[in-house]
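Tokenise the fold.
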Amino acid sequence: MAQSSEQNTRTLASIGIDIGKDVFHIVGFDVAGKVVLRRKIKRLSLVAEFEKLPPCIVGMEACLSAHFVSRTLHGLGHEPRIIPAIGACPRA
């Protein structure tokens, strides 16, 4: 029998968030690294969605709005971490 979505979110250890212009994709992992949550949310519902989740580490790629999102999530009790974007760097 599959666990309900509410039970799965209680086991969240970390979340990865892909910040887009209007839509964000979030993927949540438990302590074993198993995916327990997948959602596509609109930018305007970010606060409402993360208020429903237990406090956890939230990783996101550095971009123009990453600091705004980070401050918002920190205010909700989460532990945001901004990861530098790694582009294709030509070797010298």
In short: The CA atoms of residues 62 and 84 lie 5 Å apart. The chain has one domain: 5-78. The chain is about 25% helix and 35% strand.
